[in-house]
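Key result, reporting period 2: structure in, sequence out.
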């Protein structure tokens, strides 16, 4: 599993090479999840913000070529064409979860967090998940995002079991199939808005003119075309979260996973981000799963389930 710092560095250099390393030092795991899809639940997560030593500028991103893992190039792989928005790829998007369990062994006891989660969603569907604090919402999301391994049960995303892949393949799979939005935007402070949206491409196909055009189009879609050259500190909290949504969608993922995405926002910005997630996911035929405590936000979703006692129940 891609959880240790050593593994993260190795994944990074395997799949990203110098392009990410030269602009961000030290790399932390949150950036990893965003750019490359690795563990975000480490103890260092809350304190270890990525520190950018130098702003690379967009021209430095454009190294050309691709550094995709070989998994991306397998004939017929859904990974192969997802970034280009191929219509056939977008049409067949699926998530199938069967009998998912997750136990954590602590010194005192084994905690049974998930006790049998079943879920089927297709492209264009959107689900809000609510539940008491500690009920396992984030755990579920991180397993669906192929960040944490389940204790038992299966997850299939576009008919691929990500836990059957090796670490490098799984990292590449996450990068291309899964977008994350967190409570904190986790934008890199010294990069511009446009560069922040392009960060996930550094771990995958690279940044070319088409990618930049797509990023600009997404930013225009969320009403930020006039902010592309701004730094995160120069825009509002709601605007930062809109940038985070664009970053999550830049690779046109199958799964858009949002963990308390409006937790730091006021009510009007919360509603706006909720609508934006729903609209952008629908436009790209993505499967949206949003964990939230905000019942008004949950009510905006066509499907709403509660996580209780380790299982999903209709809300
Ligand atoms: P939620 O997001 O619903 O608040 P979490 O998924 O974060 O809940 O956590 C569910 C339960 O799993 C909690 O009791 C939490 O303490 C426990 N837990 C989460 N991660 C770990 C871990 N790495 N080791 C042990 N227990 C954990
Ligand atoms: Mg949580």
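The corresponding designed sequence is given below.
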């Amino acid at each position: 599993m891609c959880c240790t710092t050593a593994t993260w560095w190795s994944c990074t250099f395997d799949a990203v090479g110098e392009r990410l390393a030269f602009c961000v030092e030290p790399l932390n795991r949150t950036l990893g999840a965003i750019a490359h899809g690795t563990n975000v639940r480490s103890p260092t997560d809350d304190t270890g913000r990525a520190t950018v030593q130098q702003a690379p500028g967009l021209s430095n991103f454009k190294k050309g070529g691709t550094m995709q893992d070989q998994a991306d190039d397998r004939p017929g792989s859904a990974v192969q064409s997802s970034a280009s928005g191929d219509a056939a790829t977008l049409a067949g998007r699926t998530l199938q979860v069967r009998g998912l369990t997750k136990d954590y062994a602590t010194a005192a006891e084994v905690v049974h967090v998930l006790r049998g989660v079943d879920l089927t969603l297709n492209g264009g569907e959107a689900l809000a998940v609510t539940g008491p604090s500690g009920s396992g919402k984030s755990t579920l999301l991180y397993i669906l995002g192929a960040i944490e391994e389940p204790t038992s049960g299966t997850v299939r995303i576009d008919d691929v079991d990500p836990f059957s892949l090796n670490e490098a393949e799984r990292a590449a799979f996450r990068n291309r199939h899964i977008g994350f939005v967190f409570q904190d935007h986790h934008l890199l402070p010294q990069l511009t808005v446009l560069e922040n949206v392009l960060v996930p491409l550094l771990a995958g196909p690279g940044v070319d003119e088409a990618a930049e055009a797509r990023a600009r189009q997404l930013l225009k879609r969320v009403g930020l075309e006039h902010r592309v050259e701004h730094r995160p500190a120069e825009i509002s909290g709601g605007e930062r979260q809109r940038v985070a949504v664009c970053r999550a969608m830049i690779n046109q993922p199958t799964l858009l996973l949002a963990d308390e995405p409006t937790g730091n926002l006021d009510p009007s910005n919360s509603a706006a981000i909720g609508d934006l997630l729903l609209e952008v996911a629908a436009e790209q035929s993505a499967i949206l799963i949003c964990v939230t405590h905000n019942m008004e936000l949950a009510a905006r979703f066509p499907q709403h389930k509660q996580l209780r006692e380790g299982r999903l129940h209709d809300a």
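The first helix runs from residue 5 to 15. The first strand starts at residue 94 and ends at 105. This case is discussed further under Risks and Mitigation.
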